[in-house]
Amino acid sequence: VCFSYTRNPDKLALRHVTLHIDSGETIGVIGGTGEGKSTLVSLIPRVYDPLSGTVKVDGRDVREYTLENLRSGVSMVLQNGSLFSGTIADNLRWADPNATLAQMQAACAIARADEYIDRFPDGYETVLEQNAANLSGGQRQRLALARALLHDSPVCIFDEATSNIDVESEIDIMAGIHRLAGRKTVILISHRLANVTKADNIYVLDHGRPAGQGTHEALLAQGGLYADLWNRQQALENYGKEAQ
């Protein structure tokens, strides 16, 4: 596919990107800021349509589905997941109107949202202010994650969904997401490469162009952009540990 926000073929955000994702795989999409990662995954639920090329789900062009049917099969968690006025339970039931308390608790446990919900006097009946202003950024992300996990969809897209969460909690959350392997198709976008090292396949984008694909080990062996990013991040993490 190729894509341009201006519909101008000379100003492409995505340039001839081709990828295949098997059902039940966990896929990482990485690259620097503004490299087209979010744009690429937004083509799946038809937030945008490509300028050229085709996006297919189960072998069918996504344009052959109704938007309702297509999007009911995709759970998407963005960096700034939207929450609504109402109770925590109301927000969770946007994913599944018939969800039981036990099901909500299970999803919140994976997303580590239960840690703060259980401290509220009203628990899951706690009322959220407009834009969930009475939650921190990390708490909002955890609740948005739990809502996506509660939605019984075969495809889950996590786009920098843990960026406001502390590293220790992020590790636990990512472990829970990786346990979905085989049951759901999971697409992970993360600036922190440690979050995608266990993915079945990792796709690297550079200025909207494909810049490598493979497992973590294969990409490190190939060198190139992925290996450079990994080595830089490892050096920063080691520097931080030494500084402590």
Structure notes:
- There is one protein chain.
- With 244 residues, the chain is an alpha/beta fold.
- 34% of the residues lie in helices and 16% in strands.
- It contains nine helices and ten strands.
- It has a six-stranded mixed beta sheet with strand order 4-7-8-1-9-10. A two-stranded antiparallel ribbon has the order 2-3. A two-stranded antiparallel sheet has the order 5-6.
- The protein is globular, with a radius of gyration of 19 Å.
- The termini are far apart.
Structural features:
about 240 residues; alpha/beta; six-stranded mixed sheet; 9 helices; 10 strands; globular
Helix content: 25-40%
Question: How many beta strands in the DSSP annotation?
Answer: 10
End-to-end Cα distance, whole Å, is 46 Å
Shape: globular
The unreliable regions are: none
Compile the SSE list and pairings.
Layout: E1 26-30, H1 37-42, E2 56-57, E3 60-61, H2 67-72, E4 74-77, E5 86-87, H3 88-92, H4 101-110, H5 114-117, E6 127-128, H6 137-150, E7 155-159, H7 167-178, E8 185-189, E9 201-206, E10 209-214, H8 216-222, H9 224-243
Parallel strand pairs: 1-8, 1-9, 4-7, 7-8
Antiparallel strand pairs: 2-3, 5-6, 9-10
Give me a quick take on this structure.
With 244 residues, the chain is of the alpha/beta class. The chain has helices at residues 37-42, 67-72, 88-92, 101-110, 114-117, 137-150, 167-178, 216-222, 224-243; strands at residues 26-30, 56-57, 60-61, 74-77, 86-87, 127-128, 155-159, 185-189, 201-206, 209-214.
